[in-house]
Amino acid sequence: MKTYNHTTYVILGILTTDCKSGYAIKQFMDQSLTHFWKISYGQIYPTLKFIVQEEMAEVRTSSTPGKPDRKEYFLTSKGMEALKKWLEKPVEQLPAERNEILLKLFFGRYQTGDQTTTLLQTYKQKLEERYQIYISIEQGIKDHNEREEDAMYWLLTLDYGKRMTATAIDWCDDTLEKFITKEGQ
Known about the structure:
Layout: H1 6-14, H2 22-33, H3 41-53, E1 57-62, E2 70-75, H4 77-88, H5 100-106, H6 113-144, H7 151-184
Antiparallel strand pairs: 1-2
Helix pairs in contact: 1-3, 6-7
GO molecular function: DNA binding
InterPro entries: Tscrpt_reg_PadR_C, Tscrpt_reg_PadR_N, WH-like_DNA-bd_sf, WH_DNA-bd_sf
Keywords: DNA-binding
């Protein structure tokens, strides 16, 4: 079986939902996947074109009076098979995390103690804001999609994000405490 890049599999997966247009796919990405997988708007249409060329999806044009024609994409059995084969494969590697706070902290001796403290406090605040966004998303899924077959899986990925964020907040607290104790010596 031919293998494809992750963007292809992401788009195939999204096509299993009600998202059928490039715009709807982008909206879905921004609302659901962006916290753990990013795809730029510029990747969507070339990937859709490729998926159609590979016969993993077909495109249909729909018309609405007074509006431009809209292309809608539908997964084919070949596309569903490719998605399922990819889902069956083990995870190839752990993701390499690129984290600016860790990078700046690594070279932290070249800034003042106040700068480091502010950096950590600002990062913690952003994490707390992210955590609240996750809580809102979770409530939205529970309120509007609980009967959806995908809801449990969406909540599992959201739980991962919540746990990772909560752990990062705890790390900020511990790091600030250690740093402030060290600075007080």
